[in-house]
Amino acid sequence: MADPSASDIISALADDLPVGIWVARAPGGEFVYANRMFAALMGTDGIAEAAVGGYAEPYGIFTRDGQPYPEHRMPFVRALEEKKVVVVDDLTIHRPDRTRLDVRAFARPVADGAGTITHVVIAFFDISREVELARERALSQQREQRTQRLEAIGTLAGGVAHDFNNLIFGIKLVASELALSASDGRVKSDLELIDNITERAATLTRSLLGFARLGKHRAAPVALEDVIAGMRELLERTLAGVRLDFSFGAEARGVVVGDQAQLEQVVMNLVVNARDAVGGSGRVRVSTRTVPLDAPPPLATGAFTRGTAVVFEVADDGPGIAAPERDRVFEPYFTTKTRGPDRGTGLGLATVLGIVEAHGGSIEIGGGLDGRGTTMRVYLPAGAPVTAAPAPVKSGSPAKGHGTLLVVDDDQIVRKALVSALRKLGYEVIEAASGAQALEHYRERGAQISAVVLDMIMPGLSGRATYLALRELAPGVKVLLMSGYTMNEEVQAILDLGVRSFLSKPYSMEALAHELELLCAG
């Protein structure tokens, strides 16, 4: 038996390498050799011959985004032109079995003794896992950047809403005070109109506070199926002319811990958006299911990471949302409905995101029904602990009061309106423009003061610090806390310290009178 030749030995070694090897003659690219790993990478037992003028098509070589790889950038061509080793790491192989493989190629030109390039040797490495990890990192960074952007916008929106609530509050109190003494019917009607306008403005600020995750959150076990069932008739009327389907998971009902009113707002906002998308004659599907997740939803925005999730979806067969707009749809005042009577305010999805995140959830945008449209998919954690929340404020006719109140608010306009309203209700009032000034008044006249009406957000001594200092002077001090924010964790923390009552601005004169009546009687 003859001894193996050097070429046989090299060929045998190359066949055992965990790297795909392909060799072709220069300059025409005629195939010379390929090892077994190259065939395995390409997903075929045979070796394709390069078509005239091209290599991408016979070998199924594409770019990462699925386009045929440009011939002038192929490793073989570049190695010939640049006359040096080239590295190409953006190749994706589309195999005959429809699987895909990401590869990196090292192309080395081989020259003869005269310096003429006679062959090109290319080594192919499977980098699919590396590319996948890079994609995951990019998605993670994109989610983080989007979250940071939305948090910054949320902080701004919350601050604007707080200041705006203060202004609305002043207008509302002045209008309420005037209405008490107005006898002219036209004047009363105008004052009622002002009150209605301030209520609409307050609705907008509540939406902003919801987006900023600074809104009220009353936690209780809620079955999403029950929430949707209770809204079914309303949803069907809202989507008149649209085919509305409901689909609930076959497993046990998905129970989340949350605020039912806020969850109803999420359902309604998403369904109305879907109705607008289909134009009144398409199809919308509302569904729920429960799924276990080992990792965060890849394209979701929000707080949910992993665990058992109750998933709520609203899918439509409308035109869908363009890719450039998907990253912005949760920003306040960004809307794709820019014309006509149904022009959007840009607060719907911003509010939805705020509520979802306040419930520890996430939301993502996916493809819709029948290969078109949009699906808004909400993930809410199941099994979160229940926390108590104060009872809602009742309203009624303004009740006359008596006694002396200390009013503490750094905003002069708000303070003046509040003082005027309290005097109209029958109270004596001492004004303080800061926490420090409030403490001076209390030291001097604490025995005369029935209760303190205290703003939460103030420069210098905050509402919390002022309350703690007042409590040092009088452990049983009665305090009505007020804020341009609605009930949130910061407010709850002050209530837990012993504050007796809380009202969020803007509130009515009736609500103020009722709360003070309860506080002073307690």
Can you describe what's shown?
With 522 residues, the protein is an alpha/beta fold. The chain folds into four domains: 6-126, Beta-Lactamase, CATH 3.30.450; 137-211, Helix Hairpins (Orthogonal Bundle), CATH 1.10.287; 220-381, Heat Shock Protein 90 (2-Layer Sandwich), CATH 3.30.565; 404-521, 3-Layer(aba) Sandwich (Rossmann fold), CATH 3.40.50. 41% of the residues lie in helices and 23% in strands. Helix 14 (489-496) links the parallel strand 18 (479-483) and strand 19 (501-504). The protein is elongated, with a radius of gyration of 34 Å. The model is unreliable at 1-6, 338-346 and 384-396 (pLDDT under 50).
Q: Evaluate the radius of gyration.
A: 34 Å
Shape: elongated
The CATH H-level homologous superfamily of the largest domain:
Histidine kinase-like ATPase, C-terminal domain
Provide the low-confidence segments as ranges.
1-6, 338-346, 384-396
CATH topology of the largest domain: Heat Shock Protein 90
Quickly count the helices: 15
Key terms:
single chain; 522 residues; alpha/beta; Beta-Lactamase; Helix Hairpins; Heat Shock Protein 90; 4 domains; six-stranded antiparallel sheet; six-stranded mixed sheet; 19 strands; elongated; disordered N terminus
